[in-house]
Amino acid sequence: MTLDEALTYVRAASRALELTLDDAQACSVAGHLVRTAAMADILDAAQLPLEAELPEAFCPAPFLELPR
Amino acid sequence: MRGLDTLVAIANGDISAREACADSMARIARCNQRVNAFTLTTRDRAFAEADEVDKKRARGERLPPLAGLPYAVKNLFDIEGETTLAGSKVNRTLPAAASDAFLVARMREAGAVLVGALNMDEYAYGFTTENTHYGTTRNPHDLTCVAGGSSGGSGAAVAAALVPVALGSDTNGSIRVPASLCGVWGLKPTFGRLSRRGAYPFVHSLDHVGPMADSVGTLALAYDALQGPDTLDSSCHATHAQPVAPTADAGVHGLRIGTLGGYFEEMAGPEARVAAQLAGRALSATGEVTWPDAELARAAAFIVTASEGGQLHLPILRSMKEEFEPLSVDRLIAGAMQPVAWYLAAQRFRRTYRERVMHLFKDWDVLIAPATPVCATEIGTEWLDLGGQRHPNRAAMGLLTQPISFAGCPVVAAPMWPSGPKSLPVGVQLIAAPWNEDACFRAARVLEVAGIARVQRPEYFL
Q: Is the pTM of this model over 0.95?
């Protein structure tokens, strides 16, 4: 992702998230996103197996033994 | 007086808890201005807690394990009656905490005396404690340098001997980095070991809490006091305490110890490499070990952090972004905007990564790696050259800690002095498999007894 592409993305995302940014801040945010995109590329290249699930983020309430 | 000496002196009646508290308060009054570690002192509460200990002793009651020991907490822990700042200006408008954080309550039960709250990077997003709202915390060993972060106030307060113990939090290295740069002991326990209830969150998937201290013994006693299940915190997975103090002196006989190479060498500067070598030699490390997917794990940790951190603060960013820390607000915003595909890939990777890391511990019990790539850098440093590459300094300080915490492994950070006693410290990580903190402590204690790793009081603060 180039800085220009990131800037276009940031402007669209700021509208979607209702987060107003001036030009200077949008540029700075885009710069951060470009650096993060490089990290995302490394992960993308790792090609995760289909069965790689998300780690546990949610547990239901404790299992309840119902009286018979 | 060191933490363990203070405990013995109080237990023996050589000094009262009130005297120990007054001594800590006097040091804070005298020295804090230089380091800017404290954002709050809790004088009335401290003396009340100290008096409780002294009354217990006067009544002949058995004293709890940390009776009279002064300590302080990173200002993201709830303290009853105080507003939890989490290093921010925005939080000043929040109501005061109705009760203590779980760990603060545990410390109180153990007899410790809370003397105040400590500076940090805003919302724990940083590795340098350069805080625009409350000022930069300076390194007690060189006041022109950073103390590390985000628990920089905790590291500096222990290093300057203002308190023998402090609590911090570690999402990507925020206990281990300041421990390394300030030359104190730090513990990042297994993910889910200690309750986070009442600690202001940053990244729910990665946040850890733990102690920093002036000796292995003090660190172990504090950690043991903090342990225990908390049914009200769904992120606390420990069902019972597993004390480490009783076995800390067992030595490393029988432990298979290795030193991490590859990524952990490439991303370390000369001093950090020497520190890891010294530790490896002292612990009779038998081989060089390759940690799986370290670079990928660092990337994934970075993405998860930015995404969750950004999303957490999004509602306030919408209305008050001008009130945020200028050094990190744009990173937070960028995180909030990250494509969900990046975040999900990072989280899915974490599952396979954990399995690969666990496989490594079939052959090893303790692994050694530098805690930070370099010693403390000058305040305001923007870039760091490592392995021929230019890295943003404030993010690069976590290069060596992020892959380890992403797997949830426990780590004791040991303070090393690779360039001699007058130089700056740099820490090494003593890493074990999840729930095996005792192995980290056994290795740490061997380094301490050998005099290889130690807390050294800076000349300024003698």
A: yes
